Amino acid sequence: MGARLAAGIAAGLIGGILMLGFMMIYAGVNDAGATMPLKALGAFEYGVVSFVSGPSAMIVGALIQLGFSIVLGILFALFVSRRTSIVAALFAGIVVGIAIWVAMDLFVLPFADPTMAARMELMPQAYFIAHLLYGLGLATSAIFVRAFAKDRHRRAGAQHAAETQPI
To answer: Are 76 and 11 in contact (CB under 8 A)?
Structure first.
């Protein structure tokens, strides 16, 4: 369970960073301002004022994104085992990324953060691609589960060997 928790945190962070990074680059290249995605996320707390409130809204936006990314990463990793293939994890990650995109676009954002919903309507393809990238990040949980489970198994074996050594 510890390996899955750690894998979910790591995969969620990777997915969240991929998503934020892509959206910031996209917004910067398309003259919306590279910080616009962070401010739009910050609108969950600050409302439309987030676009003029300075760095505090951007920090809150980043924390909101990464927090949700980690929680969803942990939930995803609960369904991944050491035997889950990379291809299966990749497929599942992409499907979950698309499902999150649908849920956010149709249900969550219009009610929880209408300011962000309005901004994402201006760049729907980028918002979709960002969720695909998040799904790719989730898929890394299979790699992390294996790595963290091996490390845990190795430490448990070393501790057992130390306990059974004669004095």
So the answer is: yes
Can you tell me the distance from the alpha carbon of 6 to that of 74, in angstroms, rounded to the nearest whole number?
Answer: 8
The tally of domains found in the chain comes to 1
The gap from C-alpha 35 to its chain's centroid, in whole angstroms, comes to: 18
With tokens 């929880």, the residue in question is: 112
Nearest to 4 by CA among 70, 72, 81, 68: 81
Q: Give the count of alpha carbons within 13 A of 79, CB side only.
A: 11
Q: Which domain holds residue 55?
A: 2-164
Q: What is the pTM of this model?
A: 0.88
User: What is the DSSP secondary-structure string of 68-89?
Assistant: HHHHHHHHHHTT--TT--HHHH
Q: What's the rounded Cα separation, in Å, for the pair 39 and 59? A: 9
Burial status of residue 164 (CB atoms within 10 A of its CB: 0-12, 13-18, 19 or more): exposed
Report the alpha-carbon distance of residue 76 to residue 149 in Å, rounded: 16
Model pLDDT, residue 151: 62
Tokens, residue 31: 């003259």
Maximum alpha-carbon separation in the chain: 71
At 10 the three-state DSSP class reads helix
Tens-digit pLDDT profile for residues 129-141: 999 999 999 999 9
